[in-house]
């Protein structure tokens, strides 16, 4: 990072360290999940989507650390999970696991240059930390935005997932931090990874991964490797800048999309790819790791076209969008308008889908193709 006087430098510093902490937590939980086939760690929410011990534990840990660093109870945090399922009597085993995971993680805070609690937190404090993240954001003031485990399906399948933390200031994303515990720091690693081990076993889980981060207006984005065993986070030595790819020839470009066709219309995207002249097969990846791949220059295009009526949430995009933009890329809705993070928990007014590209030329071509194809599509 640049120097300490930059705007949001304290916020960014704390956010990056906290995301490192919870990446480590997630790696442990994912390992346990895969080794013991421990379905006890997974629950269904009322909307039938999945939530795991990791989602709640990350949210509690980040909430506690941010509150500690920035003014107690008064900070505003918008996050995906609530305490409803976890507070039910049938969830007492999960609550116990969450409390242990949170305390184990907080006890490691000094390794990451932060201060944890003097005493272990009890169940009520953990629930309170999760519940405190009940802000709905909005156009005024600072709001932290957290997706504790983005790509929960990828997480439970031993695949890609991300921890996404952003801060919105007066409606604009000011900082973005993305923890990607299964995204190695080596170049070309995502493409190799998805070819070699689309679903990992516990043995193949490699302890590599990275945290990427940026600050609005910096024109830069950075990446740090995760730390392991007893190593401490050494900020200065470990960060390197990342940048989008310079490829602007569609024939050479790689495009990413969600794995699940319920989350994005694969055939519509394939039509766009064909119109624009993309030749490679889509790189299907869970979670905001897709934004990370664009920011790191491993792919050039990310398209997502959710079914009509689905409302995109700010925590699924804020950190990733800023990373791509500051690393040199462009992100808009499918009509070419920038995403609006100022209107509460949803990206209100989003036109059809999301298009993130490494540069303007590719972006323009995709938007034109969407415009031309839309009428004939069934979306
Ligand atoms: N029907 C739907 N259409 C589009 N996106 C959806 C969806 N249902 C869930 N999602 C979002 O897609 C995210 C996963 O992204 P991807 O498909 O790119 O891996 C989910 O994040 P969580 O896993 O955090 O719930 C969720 O927010
Ligand atoms: Mg998500």
TrEMBL record:
Catalyzed reaction equations: 3'-phosphoadenylyl sulfate + H2O = adenosine 5'-phosphosulfate + phosphate; adenosine 3',5'-bisphosphate + H2O = AMP + phosphate
GO biological process, one term: inositol phosphate metabolic process
E.C. number(s) listed in UniProt: 3.1.3.7
Binding positions (Mg(2+)): 80, 147, 150, 316
Cofactor annotation: Mg(2+)
Taxonomy, superkingdom: Eukaryota
Group of enzyme by EC: hydrolase
Homology family: Belongs to the inositol monophosphatase superfamily.
The name this protein goes by in its record: 3'(2'),5'-bisphosphate nucleotidase
Species of provenance: Forsythia ovata
């Amino acid at each position: 990072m640049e120097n300490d006087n930059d705007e949001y430098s304290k916020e960014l510093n704390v956010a990056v360290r906290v995301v490192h902490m919870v990446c480590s937590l997630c790696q442990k939980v994912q390992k346990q999940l895969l080794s013991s086939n421990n379905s006890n760690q997974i629950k269904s929410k009322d909307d039938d989507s999945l939530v795991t011990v990791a989602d709640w534990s990350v949210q509690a840990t980040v909430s506690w650390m941010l509150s500690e660093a920035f003014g107690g109870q008064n900070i505003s945090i918008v996050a995906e999970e609530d305490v409803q399922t976890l507070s039910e009597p049938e969830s007492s085993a999960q609550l116990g696991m969450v409390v242990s995971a949170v305390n184990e993680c907080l006890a490691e805070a000094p390794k990451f240059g932060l201060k944890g609690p003097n005493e272990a937190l009890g169940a009520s404090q953990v629930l309170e930390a999760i519940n405190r993240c009940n802000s709905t954001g909005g156009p005024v003031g600072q709001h932290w935005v957290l997706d504790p485990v983005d790509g929960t399906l990828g997480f439970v399948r031993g695949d890609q997932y991300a921890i996404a933390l952003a801060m919105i200031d007066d409606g604009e994303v000011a900082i973005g931090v993305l923890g990607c515990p299964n995204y190695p720091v080596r170049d070309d690693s995502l493409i190799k990874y998805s070819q070699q081990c689309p679903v990992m076993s516990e043995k193949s889980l490699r302890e590599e991964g990275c945290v990427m981060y940026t600050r609005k207006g910096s024109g830069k984005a950075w990446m740090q490797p995760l730390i392991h065993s007893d190593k401490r986070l050494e900020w200065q030595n470990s960060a390197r800048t990342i940048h989008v790819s310079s490829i602007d020839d569609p024939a050479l470009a790689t495009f990413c999309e969600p794995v699940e066709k319920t989350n994005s219309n694969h055939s519509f995207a394939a039509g766009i790819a064909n119109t624009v002249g993309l030749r490679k097969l889509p790189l299907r990846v869970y979670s905001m790791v897709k934004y990370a791949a664009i920011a790191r220059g491993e792919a050039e295009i990310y398209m997502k076209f959710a079914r009509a009526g689905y409302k995109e949430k700010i925590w699924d995009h804020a950190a990733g969008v800023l990373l791509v933009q500051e690393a040199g890329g462009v992100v808009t809705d499918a009509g070419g308008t920038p995403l609006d993070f100022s209107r509460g928990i949803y990206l209100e007014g989003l036109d059809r889908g999301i298009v993130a590209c490494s540069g303007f030329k590719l972006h323009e071509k995709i938007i034109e193709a969407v415009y031309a194809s839309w009428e004939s599509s069934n979306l």
